[in-house]
Amino acid sequence: MTDLVVIGAGPAGLAAAVAAAGQGLEVAIVDSAAQAGGQFYRQPASGLRARRPRALHHQWRTWERLGDALTGSDVRFLAGHHVWAVERDSDGFAVHALVGPEQREPAVVRSAGVLLATGGYERVFPFPGWTLPGVVTAGGAQAMLKGGLVVPGRTAVVAGTGPLLLPVATGLAAAGVEIAALVEAAGPGDVVRRARALAAKLPEGAGYAARLLRHRVPLLGRHTVVRAHGEDRLTGVTVAALDTDGRVRPGTERHLPCDTLAVGHGMLAHTDLAETLGCRLDGQTVAVDDEQRTDVPGVWAAGESTGIGGAALALAEGHIAALSAAARLKGSAPDPARWAAAARSRTKLRRAAAALDAAYPPPARWSDQVTDDTLVCRCEEVTAGAVREAVDELGAGDVRTVKLLTRAGMGWCQGRVCGPAVAGLAGCEPAPSRGPFARPVPLGVLAGQHDTATRRGTP
Questions:
Q1: How far apart (Å, rounded) are the C-alpha atoms in residues 302 and 320?
Q2: Which of 117, 134, 415, 418 has its CA 20 to 30 A from that of 268?
């Protein structure tokens, strides 16, 4: 039994674990990766013996401070723990995870409180050819570079929309990849109009822009990928300009030869564990108060799960959540003055995050380019045509009905990849999964949980 379990070892989780331990709490931090850092501070595998890992990272000094503080603390870091559920019991909370190379061995960590720092994941809208080998997500290309010291190809197009495209393009270019183009659906004016609200992010953005110029990366603003080409693997993409309504402008198509397409259309919050606990959602993010508390007593949330905003915002939220948890788990009222500076940063960075959301919306008419034979749900091999048929001919009026009629979202990823696309093609709002588990669980593990509960005399 520990005082606080922090789920996720990215910026928010690390900041929270270090701060909570500094307040005298017994803290355990669990993460599915082998090393702490999350996606933002992802480290090369130790066996690779990277000589200059700092060259792959932004804010390296912050990572060093966090890593040193974690090493010098009494925090237990439980690597390789894939959390599939968190449940409340008479003693507090039970965090259920799968460990081992095949993720079949169960593990349970019990605590008085839980801090969810589960981060976010990429949104990718489909287009003809997007399942070809050589097409990867933007974050996937970044993870290959940071964690494996490998590049996905020799010539790449980085495409989609959102601020993540900038570090991906600059990182690949610095690693020797020729960037045929950075294809951004938003236009430069979308950012300029919000320059005041984006003041906290402009220096970082200017740094990336300077690197793009240094590597002579062509920027195609208000453009999109229409189709990826190839037989056994990617050989090139067709891009086209967009009008102000998000429609492809006829006659603007051009072909770009490449062997890699790194594509992404923004980020979504991981809310699965919060949903299994019954936490209230605010749209597609976990709802929290000024202390980063959810509406479930004993549960805090910080970082991208409460809204996509970047590492600096995650650090501030993790710090606030930890100080609140430290006080309340000890039975006292927290003093907001102790996190006043972090709260000011949170306000400023949330304002910038909202401006980024407005500046980089998903292409409004992306579904116009999706042909009926385009796979939307890879796990169950459901095409766009099948989704449209479920709506137009079978009368499906929501995502759940589309799922029941087509099996879209019933595969291994449980709709994490295809969910936004299915909703967009069906003309429905994305809906929370509301599943009982955050990831697939072997039946033997569930049976073992039942046997344990029976021996304890619980239903």
A1: 9
A2: 134
CA 113/CA 88 separation, integer angstroms:
10
Q: How far, CA to CA in Å, does 257 sit from each of 136, 189, 392?
A: 16, 28, 37
Contact of 319 with 339, CB cutoff 8 Å: yes
Residue 326, SS3?
Answer: helix
| C-alpha to C-alpha distances, 267 to 109, 138, 190, 264, 365, nearest whole angstrom | 29, 11, 18, 8, 18
pLDDT at 131: 96
Contact between 310 and 109 under an 8 Å Cβ cutoff? The reply is: no
Q: What is the mean pLDDT of residues 219-233?
A: 96
Label residue 364 left, alpha or beta by phi (over 0 means left) and psi (-120 to 50 means alpha): alpha
End-to-end CA distance of the chain: 22
Task: Tell the residue number behind the tokens 């407005």, with chain if given.
Answer: 358
CB 197 within 8 A of CB 370: no
Percent of the chain whose pLDDT exceeds 90: 71
**Which tokens go with 425?**
């093609």
Give the integer Cα–Cα distance in Å for 3 and 112.
5
User: What are 246-255's pLDDT values in tens digits?
Assistant: 999 999 999 9
Give the 3-state secondary structure of residue 219. Answer: strand
SS3 309: coil
- Residue-wise pLDDT for 252-266, tens only, equals 999 999 999 999 999
How many angstroms separate the CA atoms of 6 and 20, rounded?
10
- Judge whether 47 and 350 are in contact, CB under 8 Å: no
Nearest to 227 by CA among 362, 427, 371: 371
| Token pair of 264 as six digits | 């992404």
* CA 237 vs CA 124, 367, 378: distances in Å: 16, 17, 20
The tokens describing 374, both together, are 């385009």
Radius of gyration of the chain (CA): 22
For the chain, give the number of residues. 459
Q: Phi first, then psi: what are they for 101, rounded to 5°?
A: -55, -35
249 and 286 in contact (C-beta within 8 Å)? no
Which tokens is 160 given? Answer: 């989609």
| DSSP for residue 289 | -
- Cβ(66)–Cβ(38) under 8 Å? no
**Distance (Å, whole) CA 269 – CA 123:** 10
Closest CA to 314 of 353, 275, 354: 353
CA atoms of 112 and 91, how far apart (whole Å):
7
